[in-house]
């Protein structure tokens, strides 16, 4: 039988494109040159040059590495509990994980955005998204702790999030799964998708002084899937660009039905106009329910508030608010170059990278160079918005970062490589393999107005043989490249917690001096603080017993507690009296469900315990704090009720 060879080739190419197991580059190992070791060596006692904040994917956490060493410096629980830090165990931190669905101590964290001033990373906060139960978080870079979590209404699968404007006015969050809006009946046949499901973009305002977030307003429109986004900058400041897929609005077998169209869209949103419309009262109030959780650094306690209303603008009702730009084949990354002129769309299933021009988009809008409408939204002609295409970049382009020399770097998931190309002439300059199947890339400042040009990190999806085997599950993997010369050079593999998606990096000098070393005990406003051993006490309110307990090298005060009865609710409010850097004390008691705590110097943290039977219960400090750490202990006597 004669096979139509064109057809066969086409099918083979498609199979390769959608295959999750990318081909293995052949010259593994040989790409590392002799001086790689000295380039990543950070001598004992010396600091790394950059902080690297890396999403922890389905661990719900954020991890912090030093670059170029790849040393893990900290894991920050965000949408998770963490026994190492007692996060989510203490009464003070539990409200951080509250949602309109109750306490949800897990999420899927994909993207991070650092706060910016004038388009440069300012080192104040890192924002992160929770995909599953739609939330955004703000992490404080003084304490390296989660300071705030905001739930997002009218959203399902908060993937396109959080992306920040150049003065941190807003972070945006586009819904991945369109759903019926919260004030509508969600109990509808799934095949009524096209009429009942809506896509939503949330604009979350960020207070410029304290960082507090709120849902300022939302845009509601067609039931597409938003994927990724970036804000305009410089000349395009005032706009946001979102990649979308499933513009077919399929509700079943998305793998096939959402990949039918030759082109999906990049949605361009004029957020300055949206802001103006909201100021003019053009928004509509919609009923909903979402949680706003904040950690207060003076009381050392989180509070959770449920909010019930959100302001919505319908996209199609406001001319000039949104435009669609055709973009080949299921675009994933949507990245804006440092000048703000070039918008790079990366179609997962496309064999080229389209680069759009902001000036041309503006001209196309002025000239009405439209190609019809999509659900009431004008579609700009592809050629009218296009600056040019990067030809034959590799297979499966995903994400692009930029350096300080006018170059772009795009990750190629299927062909497992990083491809460097020039933004002006769109010529491919260099390519290096990744091990294996790279997702996001990160250059410190690489999505800001001021990228650096020394290092690039690739965050890979598949590890396989890169590390010693550790059973069926392998550590996630990142790779560091030197990009200072014409040719990229692989320097280092380092394991990450997983799985890593987007990351941000910044010079250590921007952050290190703002680090909090301890909390001043005289400023502690916790309602149950004991500011000295003399203030420690045990007192009863009905069946609640409060123990205001102090911790100081190397004893607990009080260390013998009696008068507790079975079924009492006992609250150990533990205050660490130390006033020095890096002297936490821990606290644990036998049999308590939420053991343990880790209490920072000057802070008060509460462990709740309901003893179920009479007996003698030892308690102790869990963090080796002095030569007499083992002596830092005591007993609680529990008597029958
Ligand atoms: S996504 Cu992970 S590789 Cu969630 Cu940013 Cu593209
Ligand atoms: Cu305090 Cu050990």
Automatic annotation (TrEMBL):
Where it sits in the cell: the answer is:
Cell envelope
SUPFAM superfamilies per the UniProt record, alphabetical: Cupredoxins (SSF49503), Nitrous oxide reductase, N-terminal domain (SSF50974)
What are the record keywords, sorted? Copper, Metal-binding
Keyword Metal-binding among record annotations: yes
- Gene3D superfamilies attached here? Cupredoxins - blue copper proteins (2.60.40.420), YVTN repeat-like/Quinoprotein amine dehydrogenase (2.130.10.10)
- Signal peptide from the UniProt entry: none
List, alphabetically, the Pfam families matched.
nos_propeller
Single GO cellular component term = cell envelope
Q: What does the record give under GO molecular function? A: copper ion binding
Q: Is-annotated flag, keyword Nuclease?
A: no
- Return the protein name: Nitrous-oxide reductase
Organism source for this protein?
Daejeonella rubra
